[in-house]
């Protein structure tokens, strides 16, 4: 199977004929009988050491067959040898950071990234020193103890693009993690540009229905083993029910993204013409070097965008209060359209100076376009934007850090 459309439907289901099922079975066992102690001991040692499987799963914190199937599916979609699934995207990010400490204490990261990722990195909670740099500064900022380089492209929430291949070249022997949550495999495959780790908040496009909390990291088998060890020690394994729903969601991934992306392309152009909107951030509307990166590493612009409102925070608050079809909520990549205010919600943990430096203004609104009828989406957005015409007379309220 070489086409992603086919892989999305069939990956991770290779053993179904042998076991006689058509839908993924859900294994809810928390423990597994070990009548043969020798097999049990060998299996325990293998799983704790990070092996992908063993003769006996022993205990659900160490391994689960339902989770293993969806890991296999995601790895195939990403074009990677292995995938490790976690209970959330942040659990996945934390595991990579904890494992990175075995190589050094220094991390380079390119802003903007997801607000909670930024907070985790800046706080030093994982015992690492994080230095935030521009992409073109990476080579000059490498140290002997640099263990990891982290980028997010397209970036949350500004949709800024980072040249993955250029970052990988600059990083040299230091592995590069790409958070590709905004661009699922049918849009972007970071492995093609040399990424060592590809991370997704699988809560988003991969599951696609707003009912799963999950994170996945695709990588080589060599890199996957220590991640499984961290996962076993920290209890971060994805729950089998969530794994089942994630696997089911993958089958329609390409169809969902295709429809949402088509809607987003139309919405972005209409937003750009609306008198209440100062600018629109959307990959296919980028210019200059950003446009070159888009053409080089993406197969489409995706379904995420951000737009700057001329009347700032007051207008943003009015839009969120005025939408009726779109859901004013954080998260993204679901079948319905979601709209939220990064400075007040997902990136609230950043300092005001950091937000300003990276274009996360009080008037910036992030939109995750769904698969609804395009005219219904636009009519709702249009009436919400039209409601902002009087916000210039309202008192200004600052979004606090």
How would you describe this structure to a colleague?
This protein has about 400 residues and is an alpha/beta fold. It contains 15 helices and twelve strands. The strands form two sheets. The chain has a seven-stranded mixed sheet, with helices on both faces. A five-stranded mixed sheet has the order 8-9-12-11-10. Strand 4, helix 8 and strand 5 form a beta-alpha-beta unit. Helix 5 crosses helix 9 (about 220-235), helix 11 (about 255-275) packs parallel to helix 15 and helix 13 (about 310-320) packs across helix 15 (about 375-385). The longest helix has 21 residues, at about 255-275. It starts with a helix and ends in a 15-residue tail after the last helix. Mean pLDDT is about 95; it is low at about 390-400.
Task: Explain the layout of strands and helices.
Elements: H1 4-10, H2 16-19, H3 37-48, H4 65-78, E1 82-86, H5 89-100, E2 106-110, H6 115-123, E3 129-133, H7 138-141, E4 146-152, H8 164-171, E5 176-179, E6 197-201, E7 215-219, H9 221-234, H10 240-250, H11 253-273, E8 277-281, H12 288-297, E9 304-309, H13 312-322, E10 327-328, E11 338-340, H14 352-357, E12 364-368, H15 374-386
Parallel strand pairs: 2-3, 2-4, 4-5, 5-6, 10-11
Antiparallel strand pairs: 1-7, 6-7, 8-9, 9-12, 11-12
Helix pairs in contact: 4-10, 5-9, 11-15, 13-15
């Amino acid at each position: 199977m070489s086409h992603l459309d086919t892989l999305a439907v069939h990956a991770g289901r290779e053993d179904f004929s042998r076991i006689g099922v058509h839908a993924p079975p859900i294994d809810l066992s928390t423990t597994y009988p070990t009548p043969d102690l020798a097999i049990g001991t060998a299996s325990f040692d293998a799983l704790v050491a990070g092996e992908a499987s063993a003769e006996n799963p022993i205990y659900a914190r160490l391994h689960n067959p339902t989770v293993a199937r969806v890991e296999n599916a995601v790895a195939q979609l990403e074009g990677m040898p292995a995938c490790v699934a976690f209970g959330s995207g942040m659990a996945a990010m934390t595991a990579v950071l904890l494992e990175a400490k075995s190589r050094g204490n220094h991390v380079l990261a390119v802003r903007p990234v997801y607000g909670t990722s930024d907070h985790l990195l800046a706080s030093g909670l994982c015992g690492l020193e994080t230095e935030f740099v521009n992409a073109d500064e990476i080579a000059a900022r490498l140290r002997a103890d640099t263990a990891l380089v982290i980028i997010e492209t397209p970036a949350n929430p500004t949709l800024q693009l980072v040249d993955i291949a250029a970052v990988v070249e600059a990083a040299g022997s230091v592995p590069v993690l790409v958070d590709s949550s905004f661009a699922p495999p049918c849009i972007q495959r970071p492995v093609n540009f040399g990424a060592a780790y590809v991370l997704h908040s699988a809560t988003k496009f991969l599951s696609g229905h707003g009912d799963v909390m999950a994170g996945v990291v695709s990588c080589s088998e060599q890199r996957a083993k220590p991640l499984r060890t961290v996962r076993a020690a920290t209890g971060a394994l994805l729950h089998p029910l969530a794994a089942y729903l994630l696997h089911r969601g993958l089958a329609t991934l390409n169809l969902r993204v295709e429809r949402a992306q088509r809607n987003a392309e139309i919405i972005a152009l209409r937003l750009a013409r609306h008198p209440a909107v100062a600018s629109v951030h959307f990959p296919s509307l980028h210019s200059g070097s950003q446009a070159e990166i888009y053409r080089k590493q993406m197969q489409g612009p995706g379904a995420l965008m951000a737009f700057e409102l001329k009347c700032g925070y007051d207008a943003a608050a009015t839009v969120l209060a005025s939408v009726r079809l779109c859901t004013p909520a954080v998260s993204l990549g679901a079948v319905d359209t979601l709209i939220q205010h990064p400075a007040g919600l997902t990136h609230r943990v950043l300092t005001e100076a950091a937000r300003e430096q990276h274009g996360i203004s009080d008037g910036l609104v992030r939109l995750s376009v769904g698969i609804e009828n395009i005219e219904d989406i636009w009519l709702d957005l249009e009436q919400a934007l039209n409601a902002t015409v009087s916000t210039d007379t309202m008192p200004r309220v600052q979004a606090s850090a």
